[in-house]
């Protein structure tokens, strides 16, 4: 019940599969990518890894694929995935396959990018879109690099495919000069490879394949940054010294008005020793371009301190507004020493690059806002502390998923009238605002119902009805909105076009009542939740509840509870599915009663020791960190519980 991580690797490792007919092996690799900006960078990594793996295996055809075709494949994959993410907004499937040589035809590499929104058309270069950085260069680039391409529609799916030939007969620059520039500075050199010095620049090379590859890979690198200062740092390192001798980036404050000056986020110089001289000159007067200049380049007087040891200390400088969503986020200034102007092909490339910087800064700020709101909401939705129960020790572990959104897990442990204590461990379907709404309703409702004296099963019955009533009201309101917009009417609790869906909740809820003989009477009910496990001092483990349906799903249901005694030394473990469904490949942590085995090995440990050992086991189960919320609660009756109860009674 978590969400897709933003900063982790989101692509599977490529593998060889068998396709085609007649048992002929057709090398192919496929993966599924989420519809997020980082998908294009993940697609490039996947394609590169697949081609590297095939070459290492000595597969047929790969010997005909040189570095130039590899770069074309990376660029086409990146742009088509970008197009699919922006215009379809669904999960994207990427298929890469090889076609062997047939007669005079060379071997070919075929890429297929499939989305799940065939009603959304593919944008081409003639479409009226003001920002190619946001929408990708798409079919213009595909038509330039591919031998052939097309679009295939199937029920519920749209696939854009491109076929790249495996030799050097197609798609290369026609002129020797352009070919020379591409070979010297083109995409096969790698975007972070050392660039040629100022005297070796051939700006004509940036007008062709070199520029397209630069922008495609720059988009992936910039989109992978979730901090605006890292975006600025990446942009500066990409520009200097490839396109400029130096550059500087100013960023407007998040909520600043016209009176607040932009801050200088960074200065980069091809001669690092000169950066210290250039920065003070630029800090004297922060650069802020008026909105009337648009997004085009603005010539700026050469600043003092920008001289290098090459040339006479003057040159050409251009500034661009950094814009996203119509808002000015800052400005970028580049300088080339010794030139009286910056060539048109380089200026056009800079303009495209700055648009990508604007999108990356805007996305980083949106992520920061979301993460901040999530942290505030998370603190408000969870109890500030859990109750202390006489003669009982509890230990809690709560780790929200590191994805910048509000998680769906929540917990509580609180006193009730009549000498009872109640505990809760819940998991709301999904994450983000929807999960926050349900959590914000469920936890107060549970406290209220518990303190009104309802039994455990009755509390779940009433909470189930409250969730169904609330979900139906929300669904009816959404259905009216959709109908007013020309959409379809909603039936029952099914999902509708704007994403509204039924609010499901898995819940483990129980009560604890101290017994005169030193034990604790526990009554518990599980609604679609991982069952609690009871650990005896001898190491035996058994489930302590029966499985029942999720809350918020079925209207006519009566929830049952199970009661049992916890003797001194007994422990009760309650977890969310972030523990039981922790994945390592195809395996889950609780496969084969994995959680029970780990718990059995905790016999004799105090509550805090048990919680920590289970937490470490969950983390060690897979190489990657958990991507779902992780919550577990250990309730342990103290060995000297009987004396504690007697002392408490005497004090009363």
């Amino acid at each position: 019940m978590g969400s897709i991580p933003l900063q982790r690797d989101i692509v599977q490792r490529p593998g060889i599969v068998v396709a085609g007919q007649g048992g002929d092996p057709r090398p192919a690799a496929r993966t599924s990518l989420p519809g997020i900006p980082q998908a294009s960078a993940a697609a490039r990594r996947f394609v590169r890894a697949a081609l590297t793996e095939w070459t290492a295996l000595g597969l047929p055809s790969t010997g005909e694929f040189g570095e130039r075709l590899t770069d074309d494949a990376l660029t086409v994959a990146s742009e088509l995935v970008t197009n699919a993410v922006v215009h379809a907004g669904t999960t994207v499937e990427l298929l890469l396959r090889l076609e062997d040589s047939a007669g005079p035809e060379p071997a070919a590499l075929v890429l297929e990018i499939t989305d799940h929104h065939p009603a959304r058309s593919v944008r081409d270069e003639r479409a009226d879109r003001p920002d190619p950085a946001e929408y990708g260069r798409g079919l213009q680039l595909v038509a330039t690099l591919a031998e052939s391409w097309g679009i295939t529609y199937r029920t519920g799916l749209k696939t854009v495919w491109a076929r790249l030939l495996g030799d050097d007969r197609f798609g290369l620059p026609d002129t020797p000069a352009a070919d020379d520039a591409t070979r010297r500075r083109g995409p096969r050199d790698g975007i972070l490879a050392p660039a040629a010095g100022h005297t070796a620049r051939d700006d004509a090379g940036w007008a062709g394949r070199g520029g397209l590859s630069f922008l495609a890979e720059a988009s992936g690198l910039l989109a992978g940054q979730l901090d605006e200062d890292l975006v600025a740092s990446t942009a500066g390192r990409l520009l200097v010294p490839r396109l400029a001798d130096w550059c500087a980036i100013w960023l407007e404050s998040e909520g600043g008005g016209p009176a607040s000056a932009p801050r200088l986020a960074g200065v980069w110089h091809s001669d690092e020793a000169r950066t210290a001289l250039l920065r003070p000159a630029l800090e004297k007067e922060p650069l802020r371009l008026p909105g009337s200049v648009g997004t085009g380049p603005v010539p700026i007087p050469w600043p003092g301190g920008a001289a290098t040891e090459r040339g006479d200390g003057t040159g050409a400088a251009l500034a661009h507004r950094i814009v996203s969503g119509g808002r000015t986020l800052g400005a970028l200034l580049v300088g080339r020493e010794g030139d009286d102007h910056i060539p048109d092909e380089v200026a056009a490339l800079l303009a495209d690059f700055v648009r990508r910087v604007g999108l990356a800064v805007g996305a980083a700020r949106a992520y920061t806002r979301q993460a901040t709101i999530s942290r505030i909401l998370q603190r408000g939705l969870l109890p500030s502390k859990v109750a202390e129960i006489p003669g009982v020790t509890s230990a809690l572990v709560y780790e929200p998923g590191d994805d910048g959104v509000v998680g769906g897990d929540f917990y509580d442990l609180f006193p009730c009238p009549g000498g009872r204590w109640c505990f809760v461990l819940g998991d709301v379907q999904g994450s983000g605002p929807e999960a926050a709404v349900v959590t914000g309703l469920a936890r107060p409702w549970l406290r209220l119902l518990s303190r009104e004296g309802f039994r455990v099963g009755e509390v779940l019955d009433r909470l189930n009805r409250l969730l169904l009533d609330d979900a139906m009201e929300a669904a009816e309101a959404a259905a009216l909105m959709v109908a007013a917009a020309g959409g379809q009417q909603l039936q029952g609790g099914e999902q509708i076009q704007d994403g509204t869906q039924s609010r499901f909740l898995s819940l483990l809820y129980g009560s604890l009542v101290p017994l005169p003989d030193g034990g604790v009477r526990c009554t518990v009910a599980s609604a679609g939740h991982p069952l609690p496990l009871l650990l005896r001092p001898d190491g035996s483990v058994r489930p302590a509840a029966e499985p029942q349906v999720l809350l918020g799903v079925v209207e006519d249901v009566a929830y049952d509870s199970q009661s049992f005694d916890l003797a001194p030394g007994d422990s009760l473990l309650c977890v969310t599915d972030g523990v039981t469904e922790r994945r390592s490949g195809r395996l889950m942590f609780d496969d084969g009663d994995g959680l029970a085995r780990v718990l059995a090995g905790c016999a004799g440990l105090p509550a805090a020791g048990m919680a920590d050992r289970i937490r470490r086991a969950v983390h060690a189960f897979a190489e990657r960190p958990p991507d779902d919320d992780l919550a577990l609660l250990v309730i342990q009756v103290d060995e000297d519980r009987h004396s504690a109860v007697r002392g408490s009674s005497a004090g009363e």
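The mean pLDDT is 77. The two ends are 46 Å apart (CA to CA).
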